[in-house]
Structures are given as structure tokens and as C-alpha cells.
Amino acid sequence: MPLVVMCGYPCSGKTRRAEELKVYFEQNCDRQVHIVGDGPLGVDKNVVYADSQKEKNVRSSLKAEVERKVNKDHIVILDSLNYIKGYRYELFCLIKHAQTPFCLVYCLTSDEVSSTLNKNRDAAEQYSQEILDALVLRFEAPDSRNRWDSPLFTILKDDTPPYEDISDALFKRKAPPRNMSTQSQPLSSANFLYELDKITQDVLMAIFDAQKTSVPGDLISVPGATEKIELTRSVNMAELRKLRRQFISYTKTHPTESEHICNMFVQYLKRSLH
């Protein structure tokens, strides 16, 4: 049923808080609780976080496990760094599709405290100082103004978790409504595949052409879309075409009305290129 996403620096107490929440939910909410985390995957954190592709594979595995376990009867706690806001947005889309509430629990520490706690761990469980420093540098702090980071509960090292508030967020709030990109609409146009191909190609060309006169950080308007795309880096046509193929493959099995394609594709690109 609900999803609790843990977030914080390495060695900030996420696993301890996840276990505390598990005990509380089992004793007070009569719910089965699943903790999904890096541990069962048997990964070497220093190897994984030194290789972007391996890290991406681990995140995908964790997301897939969350998706398998989220249902109407159980609570799922994702115990991982979850330090990339784009990944947290993917989790938000997942729970919107599953139509279940969620919240984010942010274990807030300073980098000095995390480093000290790391050194107090058994040698086999420690992050190397180089990896820990890199993760702290890359960390994208949650912001409650973002819908994918809300409701947000920030817990300091010596705080008692706000158990009742977290429980209310999970059991007394409605699930976020689905949007166009997470709903399956009936296929109503005989020319759907033609429209899908043409519209997505037009979007690519609009982005590619706009990059010739823009700089990273500019908002790019796409004809037919209500949203704009902010590119933080230059994107070549090969990468755009790859994302287009992925979107087309998904949309063929989840058809929508033709007038929604452009906005859906723009939303997809914004998430994928973030």
C-alpha cells in the first residue's frame, strides 16, 4: 500500500529509522512491512557508487522491487540514499500509477557527522572517504515545494521520529491523482501510430534546432506542448532518438488520445534528461 522513501547522506541513520518505522507500523497499524534496500542485493557500495552504470542498475533493481511489493495490504520502506531528485520523481510516478500514498523521510546530518559515523562502522561496511565525499557533493536535498518530495519529514540524528504524523500522511491522505503520462487511454484514432511517429519526430527537431541558439539552462518551447523543457547540457540527436524509441515502444502498449501525445512526450523527456 503506502510507500516510505528514506533519503539522506551515507551513514545518516536511514536504516535505523527504517527499522524504527517498521516496528511502529507493525505494532500500531497491524500492517505487514517490507524494507527494500541495498543490503539484500549484496552490492559493494564502493564499487557501485564509483561506476555510474552499476549505480543506475542498482537503482533500477530497487525500483523494480518496490513496484513488485507495493499493494493494498502492505507498507513498503525504501531504504537507500535516494539522493537524485530525478529518481525520486520516478518513484513518485510509480506510486501515482499504483494509486497509493507515500511520504519522504529525510535523515539530515552534516557531512562531518556522516564521515565520523562512517569511520565508526566495521571496516567491511565503510564507504571509502573518496566515495562518501563524492556522494555528499552529488546529493540533491529534498524540497517540500516539489510534489515528489512532499509530504516531507526531516529527522535530525537525535530526534524521535514523528510517528503519528508519518502515519497520518500514509493513511489519512489520498493518493496523488494520475496524470496524462500515467493513465492508459483508449485508442480512438485509426491514425494513432502515424500521429505518434510524426509528433515525436517534430518534438525532436524542435529541441535539436533550439539548441543551436540556446545555452544550457534556457527553457525550450515545443510547438503543441504546454510545458517547456530546460536542458542543463547539450543533447545530441542520437540520445534524443533513443528516448523517442523508448517512448514510442511504451505508448504503443499504453495508447492515448493523439492530442495528448506531445505533452506526454515532453514530460517523458524532462524526466529522462534531468
Structure explained in plain terms:
- This protein is of the alpha/beta class and about 270 residues long.
- It has two domains: about 170 residues, Rossmann fold; about 90 residues, no CATH class.
- Helices cover about 45% and strands about 10% of the residues.
- It contains ten helices and seven strands.
- Strands 2-3-1-4-5 form a five-stranded parallel β-sheet, with helices on both faces. A two-stranded antiparallel ribbon has the order 6-7.
- Strand 6 and strand 7 form a beta hairpin.
- The longest helix has 20 residues.
- The chain is globular, with a radius of gyration of 21 Å.
- The two termini are about 30 Å apart.
- About 5% of the residues have low confidence.
List the helices and strands and how they pair.
Elements: E1 3-8, H1 14-28, E2 32-37, H2 45-48, H3 52-69, E3 74-79, H4 85-98, E4 102-108, H5 111-119, H6 129-138, E5 152-156, H7 163-171, H8 192-211, E6 219-220, E7 229-230, H9 237-253, H10 261-272
Parallel strand pairs: 1-3, 1-4, 2-3, 4-5
Antiparallel strand pairs: 6-7
Helix pairs in contact: 8-9, 8-10, 9-10
Feature tags:
alpha/beta; Rossmann fold; 5-stranded parallel β-sheet
Instruction: Examine the coordinates and then state which fold CATH places here, giving the name of the CATH topology of the largest domain.
Output: Rossmann fold
Total beta-strand segments? 7
| Count of helical regions | 10
> From the structure provided, what is the oligomeric state, counting identical versus distinct chains?
single chain
Helical proportion, percent range: 40-55%
CATH superfamily of the largest domain: P-loop containing nucleotide triphosphate hydrolases
Lateral strand order in the biggest sheet? 2-3-1-4-5
Strand content: 5-15%
Could you report the average pLDDT, rounded to the nearest whole number?
Answer: 87
Which CATH top level class of the largest domain fits? Alpha Beta
- Distance between the terminal alpha carbons, to the nearest Å? 28 Å
SS class: alpha/beta
Query: What is the total domain count?
Result: 2
CATH architecture of the largest domain: 3-Layer(aba) Sandwich
